[in-house]
Design brief:
By secondary structure, this protein is α+β, with helices and mostly antiparallel strands. The chain has helices at about 35-40, 55-60, 80-85, 105-110; strands at about 20-25, 30-35, 60, 65, 70, 90-95, 95. It is globular, with a radius of gyration of 13 Å.
Length: about 120
């Protein structure tokens, strides 16, 4: 999330390639490569604890997504307000994912008091 303390805000890693290895977080829609999720997890959804957990990365992310936007200032971007990602860190995001987060991970979101919105059409 964006740093509210007045210091520099955290930034998500930019994808190191734009090929078939890109994945999107099913909760916040952050896009990175599979290896980046394995190494660093999701900057917005740290509670998923994806680092070094291949199964968790596969459960929390998808390769089925539509569109890509780069966001430098989520608090001032109309697209992030529309996507409900205005409190996320700067980075690359998808416009839509076509899969839902598994129920056990939806429960994690609820336990963490973090909103999760089902994708349209799921």
């Amino acid at each position: 999330m964006v740093n509210q303390g007045g210091g520099a805000a955290e930034m998500a890693q930019i994808p190191t390639s734009f090929g078939h290895e890109l994945r999107a977080c099913l909760r916040c829609r952050l896009i990175k490569t599979h290896d980046q999720f394995m190494d660093f997890g999701c900057e917005n959804c740290k509670f998923f604890q994806m680092e070094n957990d291949r199964d968790r990365v596969l459960d929390c992310t998808t390769h089925k997504f539509t569109g890509l936007i780069s966001v430098m200032d989520p608090t001032r971007c109309w697209a992030t307000r529309w996507l409900r990602t205005g409190k996320c860190v700067p980075g690359c995001y998808t416009l839509a994912v076509s899969e839902a987060l598994p129920q056990d991970l939806q429960n994690v979101c609820e336990d963490e008091n973090v909103p999760y919105v089902l994708p349209r059409g799921v």
